[in-house]
Design a protein that fits this description.
Layout (H helix, E strand, L loop, with lengths): L8 H7 L11 H4 L4 H16 L1 H24 L6 E4 L2 H9 L8 E6 L4 H13 L3 E5 L7 H17 L3 E8 L11 H11 L2 E5 L12 H4 L3 E5 H4 L7 E4 L32 H7 L7 H4 L1 H10 L4 H23 L16 E5 L24 H16 L4 E5 L2 E7 L6 H19 L6
Parallel strand pairs: 2-3, 2-4, 4-5, 5-6
Antiparallel strand pairs: 1-7, 6-7, 8-10, 9-10
Helix pairs in contact: 3-4, 5-6, 7-8, 14-16, 15-16
C-alpha cells in the first residue's frame, strides 16, 4: 500500500534523489523523477540487457501501447492520436519538416518562442520557400492583447498576398515563465484557417490539459520529463486523426515509413502509431515509465489537481517572498492570468536601461543591456559554485529576472533561502565588486 507523503521537504527526502546540499529551484529546464520511477526504469533497462532482442521486438511495443493508453485520458484524446518522441523540439521538427511548403507560405510565431524552435524555423526557411513572421511580445501583457496582435499580424500578411499556413505558440513560456492563452489562440487559428502547432514543453503535468482533445489543435507536443516526472527524454506527440495524413515520416525516417501506395503490415496499428513505434535504436525506457509516473502522482501525491494547487500556490507565495527580500516585484499582468502556472518571475535589484556609465537617483550604476550576458553568467556560475543551486536568469523588457519553479519537493524556506543569497549577489554587482 502506497502512503501519501506531505509536499515539501518530507516529499523530497522520501521520494527524490537530490544531493543533500543541492537546492533544485529550476525544475522547469530538465525536470526530475521520483525514486519509484527510477526503479521502474532500472528494471526496464535490466530486461533490455538480459534479453535485448526479445525485449525490443516483443516487449517494447506493448509497453509503449500501455503508456499511450495511460496518458491519453490526461489529454482528453483518443489513444491512437498520441505517440512518443524524445522531446518537444523533436515534435516541432517533425511537424515543420513534414509539411509541404509553397511560395508565399508563412509561419507566424511570437518573439518569446523557445530558441531551438526559432532556429528550426530558420533551418526550414533555408531549405524551402516558407517565410516566418515574428510577433513581438513584452511581458507583462494581457491575454487579449496577445490574441489581438496575432489576429492583426495574420490579416497584415494576408493583405500582402501571402498565406499564414501555420502558427506556433506555447502553453507556458520558457522565459519569462508565463502561461500563454493557448486555448484562445487555437480558437483564433480555427477561425482564421491557420494550422496550429503548440509547443507544450511546459504542459503535461504542469497545467490542466484535459480539454486538449475538445479544443483539438492541429499539432501538439509536450515533454513528460519536465513536469510529469518521467525520466529524460520523453514527450507526448498529439496529432488528431484529421491531420495524421500530413505526418509522412518520423525523424529520423525509420521502419514505420510507408512508400506511396504501400500497404505494409502494421501489426494492427494505425499507420501513424506504427510510424513512431520504433524509430531507430534508442533507450525507450523513458516512454515505458509513463504508467509508473502517473501511479506516483495519483497514489503518493493525491492526483493532478493537488499537485497543481500546491505548485501554483508555492510559486506565487514563494515568488512574492523573494521579491520582498530583494525589494523588487513579481512579474504579472492585471488579470493574473500569466501567473497561473508553476513559475514565478522575480525582478532582480539591478538597474538596466542606461549606457553603463550613468547612475540612478540612489547612486547605483545603471547597466546597459550589453552588460547583461556578463552579469547573467556570473550569477549562474557563482550560484553553482557557492550555493549548490542553479538560477535561470535572463533580461526581459528592461529588467533582469530570475525564474523560480514551484514543485512538490520545495517549500517556502527554499524561496527565503534563495532570496537572501540573491540579495547578497546583487549587492556585490551593484557595488562594482564583480568585474567579469
Amino acid at each position: 500500500m502506497t502512503i501519501k507523503v506531505p509536499f515539501g521537504h518530507r516529499m523530497r527526502d522520501a521520494h527524490f534523489s537530490f544531493s543533500p546540499s543541492y537546492t533544485p529551484l529550476n525544475h522547469g529546464s530538465f525536470g526530475t523523477h521520483p525514486k519509484s520511477v527510477q526503479a521502474r526504469q532500472n528494471e526496464l533497462q535490466s530486461l533490455a540487457a538480459q534479453r535485448p532482442d526479445t525485449h525490443i521486438v516483443f516487449d517494447l511495443p506493448n509497453l509503449i501501447d500501455e503508456s499511450r493508453t495511460a496518458i491519453a485520458p490526461l489529454l482528453g484524446v483518443d489513444v491512437d492520436e498520441v505517440v512518443f518522441v524524445p522531446n518537444a523540439t523533436t515534435g516541432v521538427n517533425t511537424v515543420l519538416r513534414n509539411l509541404k511548403w509553397e511560395t508565399g507560405d508563412v509561419v507566424v510565431h511570437f518573439s518569446t518562442i523557445y530558441s531551438a524552435c526559432e532556429k528550426t524555423i530558420s533551418s526550414v526557411d533555408e531549405l524551402t520557400p516558407v517565410e516566418s513572421e515574428n510577433v513581438r511580445l513584452e511581458y507583462p501583457i494581457e491575454d487579449g492583447e496577445i490574441v489581438r496582435r496575432f489576429r492583426e499580424r495574420v490579416e497584415k500578411v494576408r493583405g500582402e498576398g501571402k498565406r499564414i499556413r501555420l502558427a506556433m505558440f506555447d502553453t507556458v513560456l520558457t522565459f519569462p515563465g508565463a502561461r500563454m492563452p493557448w486555448e484562445r489562440l487555437v480558437e483564433a487559428c480555427k477561425e482564421l484557417d491557420v494550422l496550429s502547432l503548440i509547443d507544450g514543453a511546459h504542459g503535461v503535468g504542469h497545467i490542466d490539459l484535459s480539454e486538449l482533445g475538445k479544443l483539438s489543435p492541429d499539432f501538439f507536443v509536450s515533454n513528460c520529463h519536465k513536469w510529469l516526472y518521467t525520466p529524460r527524454g520523453c514527450a507526448v506527440f498529439y496529432v488528431p486523426f484529421r491531420n495524421q495524413r500530413l505526418i509522412r515520416t518520423s525523424l529520423p525516417t525509420s521502419h514505420g515509413y510507408q512508400y506511396p501506395g504501400q500497404k505494409p503490415d502494421t501489426g494492427g496499428k494505425t499507420p501513424f502509431v506504427h510510424l513512431f513505434e520504433f524509430v531507430a535504436t534508442i533507450d525507450y525506457s523513458p516512454y515505458a515509465c509513463v504508467p509508473a509516473a502517473l501511479e506516483f502522482r495519483q497514489k503518493v501525491c493525491g492526483g493532478e489537481a493537488e499537485i497543481r494547487k500546491y505548485c501554483f500556490d508555492l510559486a506565487r507565495t514563494g515568488g512574492q517572498c523573494v521579491a520582498e527580500i530583494l525589494g523588487t516585484h513579481v512579474m504579472d499582468n492585471k488579470t493574473k492570468t500569466m501567473s497561473q502556472c508553476c513559475f514565478a518571475n522575480v525582478a532582480l535589484p539591478l538597474p538596466f536601461g542606461g549606457t553603463g556609465k550613468e547612475k540612478n537617483v540612489e547612486g547605483q550604476k545603471v547597466f546597459s543591456e550589453e552588460e547583461a550576458p556578463r552579469i547573467q553568467k556570473w550569477l549562474n556560475a557563482t550560484a553553482v559554485k557557492e550555493f549548490d543551486t542553479y538560477l535561470q536568469i535572463a533580461l526581459h523588457s528592461g529588467y533582469m529576472w530570475v525564474r523560480l519553479s514551484g514543485q512538490i519537493y520545495l517549500e517556502m524556506k527554499d524561496f527565503e533561502w534563495v532570496g537572501w543569497r540573491l540579495k547578497d549577489l546583487c549587492a556585490k554587482i551593484n557595488s562594482g565588486e564583480v568585474n567579469g
